[in-house]
Design a protein that fits this description.
Blueprint: E1 5-8, H1 12-21, H2 31-39, E2 43-51, E3 54-65, E4 68-74, E5 78-79, H3 84-105, E6 109-113, H4 120-128, E7 132-133, E8 142-147, H5 152-158, H6 161-172, E9 176-180, H7 195-213, H8 220-231, E10 236-243, E11 247-256, E12 260-268, H9 275-289, E13 294-299, H10 310-318, E14 323-326, E15 331-334, H11 339-352
Length: 355
């Protein structure tokens, strides 16, 4: 059996061309996400995988922290393979490459968050390669998506009746939605508001949301780095919803690939006015303007993997219509006994989160 050819890619244009040709299904394999990881202090290795006429890419992130020291492939590898044999062979060759990197970097395990549909056949791929399900997810394993190529009237018809009503009601109540920068994003410059003002506004209600919902928020510096990494290529925008009296009650940070817009960061204040519904609808409209074919609401509730508190937010997302996509659960390949310290740490974290 022919081994795959694995080579590093260090040119943004070449990486993005390959990423887009593979339908750019997750921003976690985008060039911009890799640049964000570098800003956060991690090392990033980008490789192409070729086996005959089948190609793919994988972005590998070297992480050293409280969870342990490991090599992480988020929502990858991305392959244009159609046969299970090709997927097994190419993934196996990537894992062999990753093991060599891990040995050199003195890492304890390899972690892959696959972007393969969660089927028995696909789970078996990783079992064959010596992987086991990770104690905790790191990124969304079940996402809610909607196709947005249809005209707006059709999209509204596909929504739950209460969702459609909430959008129209927010409009009647005069909710104002602002987007920075708005399409077409010919240059990564913010109009009317400065980047700093956008970050500050988002941060103010994001902290309130985190306290109310009981989750640990990303730091302000993280949000700045995320926005700047994607905005550099015109692939991010903030959305703000204001009620009467200029009161900000909902906000979001949307990041985009060529195919998909992702609702990655969100924040809301409690209000009788359904501004969050109108905010999502305006985000979808903006995504359409930017040429996206899908709108991804990101993570939704999955029993045993996400907190019970996600149920309400999941119901909100599902009201817009669309479909769930389940990925194979995050997989770990232990390389030495130190991996089991990570298992203990994440098991304790899982109990703390009531999973």
């Amino acid at each position: 059996m022919t081994n795959s050819k694995i080579t590093e890619i260090n040119e943004e244009g070449r990486w993005t061309l390959s990423f887009n040709s593979l339908k750019s299904p997750s921003f976690l394999q985008s060039w911009e996400w890799g640049e964000l990881q570098k800003r956060l202090g991690y090392s990033v290795i980008r490789v192409s995988i070729q086996r005959g006429g089948v190609t793919g890419i994988a972005q590998l992130i070297i992480i050293k922290g409280r969870r342990g020291n490991f090599l992480f492939v988020p929502h990858g590898p991305m392959l244009n393979a159609e046969s299970t044999d090709d997927i097994i062979q190419m993934t196996g060759d990537l894992v062999s490459y990753a093991e060599r990197v891990a040995k050199k970097e003195k890492l304890n395990f390899i972690r892959i968050a696959p972007i393969l549909e969660n089927t028995q056949e696909n789970r078996h791929i990783f079992t064959q390669l010596g992987f086991t399900a990770a104690p905790l997810y790191m990124h969304a394993e079940r996402v809610w998506q909607m196709a947005i190529s249809a005209d707006e009237e059709q999209l509204l018809k596909q929504m739950r009746k209460t969702t459609r009503y909430s959008i129209k009601h927010a409009e009647k109540l005069g909710v104002r939605v602002e987007i920075y920068p708005s399409a077409p994003a010919e240059a990564p410059l913010l109009s009317k508001k400065t980047e700093s003002q956008c970050i500050d506004e988002f941060w103010n209600i994001y902290q309130v949301t985190a306290k109310r919902e009981g989750f640990v928020p990303f730091s302000k510096s993280y949000l700045i780095n995320e926005f700047e990494s994607f905005n550099k290529t015109g692939s991010a925008f903030f959305v703000f919803a204001y009620e009467e009296g200029n009161r900000l009650t909902a906000a979001a940070l949307i990041v985009c690939t060529k195919s998909t817009a992702f609702y990655h960061q969100g924040a809301t204040l409690h209000s009788k006015v359904p501004s969050a519904y109108l905010l999502q609808w305006r985000s979808i409209q903006e995504a359409k303007k930017r040429g996206c074919k899908l709108y991804n609401f990101w993570g939704t509730y999955k029993k045993g993997r996400t907190p019970e508190s996600w149920k309400g937010l999941s119901l909100f997302k599902e009201g817009f219509g669309g479909f769930a996509t389940d990925y194979v659960e995050t997989q770990d390949k232990p390389l030495n006994f130190k991996y089991y310290w990570t298992v203990l740490y994440e098991t304790a974290l899982k109990m703390k989160r009531f999973l």
